[in-house]
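Good morning C.,

I know you're traveling, so I'll keep this short. The sequence:
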Amino acid sequence: MALPTHFDSLYIGGSWVKPIGGETSAVINPATEEVIGKAPVGTAADADAAIAAARDAFDHGPWPKMEWRERAGVLQQFHDALMMRKEEIVQLCVAEAGSIVPVASIMQFDMAMDGLQYYIHQIERREFVIPSSVSAHTNWATGGETLGSTVKVYEPLGVSVGITAYNYPFFLNLAKLGPALASGCTFILKPAPQTPLEALILGDIASEVGLPPGVFSIVTGGADVGEKLTTDPRVDQISFTGSDKIGAMIQAQAAPTLKRVTLELGGKSAMIVCEDADLEQAAFAGLINLTNQCGQGCVLQTRQLVHNAIKGQYIEMLKAMASQVKLGNPADPDTGMGPLISAAQRERVLAFIEQGKADGNTLVCGGSIPSGMDSGFFIEPTIFDCPNNSTAIAQEEIFGPVVCVIGFDTEEEAIAIANDSQYGLSGGVFSQDPGKAYRIGMKMRTGGVLINGGGGRLNPSVPFGGYKRSGIGREYGEEGLNEYLEIKVIDFRAA
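The tokens, ready to paste straight into the viewer:
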């Protein structure tokens, strides 16, 4: 199957157009360092054209004015067209993002499609005009009574921009496109420069299902494109997934025009392993949080807080499991962990590892480029035994296959360590006492907690987001849809 890896045009206003600068860039397979395709490089002028098209489509086009169920029908065609191309999209996730096959198939594709289907169902069944109870009100002018009522109306917010990260690009693209288009907004997608192909393929689908011109555009490019999208007064909303530092910049850029901003940012999540935990179950979860997408995940629980009575056993078990993980090309179905996205990211992770050793943490295993792997951006699964929670590797988001194991003696100490972070995105508790685990989870300052590993799959009806520097707002669930809606209240007399 020939993958859609060569694009020389941007998707703007319902058409494929060459970028104004005429530039294209090579797309690199991070496992082989081979060029697998090319993508256009957009400019601020291209972003301006996309904004103009989106603004016109929202102000004058049919999309925001459609009946909710009619819009749901178009999005169902979009969903079904993507499902027909699952195999090639999964292969693209493997080749471009370095996802191993199960992650590409389940976490990138299937979960993204579950989310899109959820939003389709939401607008098919949700009542968007909700009347209040009718009551009698005093008429101050006459002294009599006036019958009145109030309705609450949900309306699309306007022009929305989605800026996505490179770790789960297909999933993140759909997570923003789904609610934006379902709500009736017009939408501009800016993918990460490392992973443009999983965005550009969506332009093919948009053309296939006949989205009206300007409803959906895709603009690649760098910081100049991002700044144009986040500062232009014609844009009403920004949804960004990425680091907290870039998120803060985006919030500052959007502030002068008072845009609505949804930020899904970094994490340094804590997994608490109590003395009574099922040790094998906990260690396996610890391994997944170490190796999933080569540690490039904001929700990964990379601070693993283990009761001192079992800490030594836990570390040995986790080390033994990590030693069995096969590193290699993610296209190989036997591969357990693929590469980091780029050479620059690998250097960043290696620098953190060196800092971790210099700060007095004990390197248990890993910490190097794997022997004999001369191509690809690979790094060994790395485990540190940390004496406390204060060093850089315990506080900073590394975004690589590195975990810190930190001991504790009491429940209160574990909770205090877990909450001693600038982030608060995810968390976990392992205990064979579900009431105890729930009580601990309730005290963790984080947007989500998995008890004994949770259900194992994202539920799109449940809101996702974080506390503190992990973000603002929520994705998924009714809360996620509301990020793209305005609420109007109309009060009137019945007679």
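Safe travels,
E.
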